[in-house]
Amino acid sequence: MALHPTDYSRKERVFVDRETCIDNFKKFIQDPNNQDYNALFYYGIAGIGKSKLQHELQNILNTEYPEMLWVSMDLENDTHRNASTFLIALRNKIQKKCNMKFYKFNLAHAIFSKKSRPDIPLNKDTYPMLKEDGFFYDILNALNETAFGPFLSMPLKQIADIINHAPANIRRHFGELPIDIKKLESMEAHEIEKILPGIFAADFTSNFGTSSRVCIFIDTYEAIWKDWLGIGSFSEKDKWIRKCLIPNMPGVSWVICGREQIKSLWVEDEQDWEMCMKEYPIEDLPEKYSEQFLKECGIEEEDIRSIIVKASEGVPYYLNLSVDTYEQISRSKKPEAKYFADTKKEVFDKFVKYLDNNDKRTLYILSAPNSWDRNLFEILIKKFNPTYSIYEFQDLIKYSFIKEVKDGNFSLHQLMRKSLQVHQDPTYRKEVHLFLHNYYSNKIKDIDVKSITQEHEIALIEAYYHAKELMEFDDLGGWIVEYTEPFDKAGYWKTINPMFNDLVEVFKGRLGSEHPYVGILTKKLAYLSEDRGRYDEAISYYQQVLEIYEKNLGKKYRGVDLVIDDLAIAMASNDLANSYLGIGEYEKALTLQQKALDILQDEVDEDPGYIALLQQNMALTYQYLGQYDEALELCQEALSVREALLGKEDLEVAKTTENLAAIHQHLGNYEEAFALAQRALNIREKKLGSKHPHVAKNLSSLGVLCTIMDNLEDALKYNHRAAEIAEERFEEDHIGIAQTLSNLGATYQYMLRYDNALEAYLRALQITERSLGSDNPMLVNTLNNIAETYRKMENYEKTLEFYQRALNIAKNRLGKEHPYVALILNNIGRLYIDTGEFDKAHPLCQQALDIRGKTLGIDHVDYAITLQDLGIIYGCVGRGDYALPLFERSLKIFESKLGADHIRTKDAKLLVDTLKELRVQVIKELIESGIMVSDNGRWVVKKQDN
Q1: What is the pTM of this model?
Q2: CB-count burial class (<10 Å; 0-12, 13-18, 19+) for 110
Q3: Where do the TPR repeats lie (predicted)?
């Protein structure tokens, strides 16, 4: 790039954000309860904008607090890092702003200077000239007459005479000198330097008093240790500020900026600092403010701004350097995004400016892991930098560029980390990565699926990160497949998804996007998306897989032992169908499943295992479509084949068993359903552990069955446990969480805990809507349950609103004769029974009965429930001759399906017996008097006292 002259007159760049820092500053200087001495300390990494913040705070003083005197010192200036030169500079800055005299300090400093360099005369060429009354030059001349010898002999009498002949106002100041001139003359130079801050403070206080409106800024505080790294005590270097200067200047507000926290060190030395110092971090600049800054600096290209913001990691110094680069490029050509993606050396230099070589080596090592605890720190240091003491850990983690990411785990600021990695020797860096890869891989090698913890999850992520830095293309793929398998089985799908996503992109780059290996890996991504409840994403992946497979059907690749055949296409179609089931597209799913089945049945050597898999999935589709008899036949056949091929304890058999249980539940065969669901749970807990996401689904199913079978105590236990596992293991908004919450709500509803039920249902509704959309058939059951709860709470307006929404979705998405349509029609009919609108209730319940008889059969429990409701309607309109036969038919079905001891059967029998005794003419009176009530879908006759 061509050199250009520096633009010294350019417009000052805008200051953005830091509202919290500014608010803290204003509270600090306005606080009337400030201690006699006080300090405000801001800390943050190099380049975070500490100096810019100080300038902004000074502007605030100028505009909002003009009566307040302020001066600023920067320890970046090496002459400000020791007491004597710092105080001279501070004196000069104060005197520029006000007519203040430092008589005592000037005398003490002059004696100190002469003691320090007795052979050098004090004049304008060798000594910072003092802007005091002319008499002081006489003192300097007198000091220049100091006699040399074994001991320095200062002309004390001559100095005393000069002071005694000075004007009265000057003599008054010297009369208050904290230490006698003779005492100063007897002290060594280093002893005088130690008391200079106190003498300076005495002069300051004699001028301003103890309630001054003065603010002193100190910047780059960390530089005070620059020339003393590794020499002497850490706390000794700034003792003259901490103990001698600030405490002796009451009323002054000190605002200090540095890289590292200092309050704990100051408090350790003097407990009073706990109350007298406020300490705040300067955080990374949020992206929106970084974006604002770049816009206001004239960077109009969105892609360039995006790259700079991302690369900056919130560090303003990086943003400023990028603006400089942009302006330089703009002078000769149009800037492009590619010029702004690198890590800038100036940033690295700024980060490590005050670190010694041993610290740098340690940070190079620690830039390799994403995070580290004390144990890993010690292992790495002993291996790669044994000269660095492991006992410096506590001091190391106090650096502002090191953050505690969670309890006991630390990481470097990302921009510093990137800078360290870029400027590190590549061979050395690779050695550290190899060591860490092996370290983490060993933690998860041959791990038991049931024993995986968050620690193992972190180890996998770290091992993969270091594998990417080390391994070649083929080795990386093999490592991912081998080491992620147990995590896949254990349900850590979110964790391993990025690894396969990276692998797909690598394979696309090496082999092309239509290679069959890309299809196979994309299929894995689809599986993971499906498990994570991201069905639309899974559908997109499966469609890509089918497209790749169809293009490669029958092709052979050199050096690749892989051929895509009809079986691969059939199985990909089956997988796509499963994702369509997840979003309620049942007809699309069935079409794909039938296509896959046709392909398999045309094969000469058809595999019964694949046929059984398809039968199982088709059974699930028929179940969703409400065609339970077809579903039962297919699923039972699939279970028999899979048990024979895989064994009765296989996880795939558990899946088929689970599906069969759901079908029996819909058919009203609750005992069979419970036994099958329990069997599926036992297999999964044995193979996967007690907290697997699939276990949550089994537990939730058992909770539903217990609710139906009136075992509410067990139902609540199952559903609570299911919801806890789902919340812990599924990602936010996973449909699995919604399903467990909905089932938990049903149990609460049966327990008459309507507020709890409504809370669970409404949350399930929100999750389902966010995951699947507002008209998905998966919403029907939850909407119906919400309506039922409102009905029990007698909020009939809300009840009808939710019933109607559920009915519309069910009719539009499932068909007008689906069992869910019958369920909602029946429930709306029951609502009208509650409100006494029997003319509206009758046609709805009759329509529900017709659909249930056609889809479920006339011996189904749901059919019996509708018979009861119709009987109630007939009884309430005076047609008792119609009502009793309906009640008797429903009782027979309950006895057959639920058994004589089920609460629904008992209630139905009591109802029939009561009505026979009363000759059924009084149903309406019984309801109106409260003797006969609807309780969770059951008509109950309350026993009366004689």
Answers
A1: 0.67
A2: buried
A3: 519-552, 570-603, 612-645, 654-687, 738-771, 780-813, 822-855
Interatomic CA distance for residues 273 and 246, integer angstroms: 11
CB 351 within 8 A of CB 414: no
The Cα-based distances of 302 to 287, 291, 294, 312, 329 in angstroms read: 13, 9, 10, 15, 17
Q: What does the alpha-carbon distance between residue 384 and residue 903 come to, in Å, rounded to a whole number? A: 73
Six token digits for residue 604: 């000469």
Give the angle subtended at the CA of 219 by the CAs of 215 and 223, to the nearest 5°. Answer: 140
* Residue range 2-61, pLDDT digits in tens: 444 444 344 455 555 688 888 889 888 887 665 567 899 998 877 788 888 898 899 999
The answer to whether 362 touches 385, Cβ cutoff 8 Å, is yes
Q: Taking the domains of the chain in order of start, what are their residue ranges? A: 18-97+216-284, 100-212, 287-349, 351-424, 611-689
Counting every residue written for the chain, the total comes to: 946
| Region 351-424: CATH code | 1.10.10
H/E run at residue 121: none
Query: Of the CATH numbers 3.30.70.1350, 3.20.170.30, 3.10.50.40, 3.40.50.300, which one belongs to the domain with range 18-97+216-284?
Result: 3.40.50.300
SS3 737: helix
| Count of C-beta atoms within a 10 Å radius of residue 872 | 27
| Cα–Cα distance measured from residue 289 to residue 543, given in angstroms and rounded to the nearest whole number | 41
The helix/strand/coil state of 235 is helix
pLDDT in tens, 674-706: 999 999 999 999 999 999 999 999 999 999 999
CA–CA separation, 790 and 828 (whole Å): 12
> What is the distance in angstroms between the CA of the first residue and the CA of the last residue of the chain?
106
Instruction: Answer yes or no: CATH 3.50.50.60 is held by domain 611-689.
Output: no
Helix 861-876 vs helix 880-897: angle between axes, to the nearest 10 degrees?
A: 160
Q: Which two tokens stand for residue 293?
A: 């800054």
**Of 378-382, 640-644, 916-920, where does mean pLDDT reach its minimum?**
916-920
Buried b (16+ CB within 10 A) or exposed e, 831-854: bbbbeeebebbbebbbbbbebbbe
What pLDDT, in 10s, does the model give residues 847-900?
999 999 998 889 888 999 999 999 989 888 878 788 889 999 999 998 888 788
Joined together, the tokens standing for residue 29 give 């200087």
Span 382-410, pLDDT tens digits: 999 998 888 888 888 877 778 888 888 89
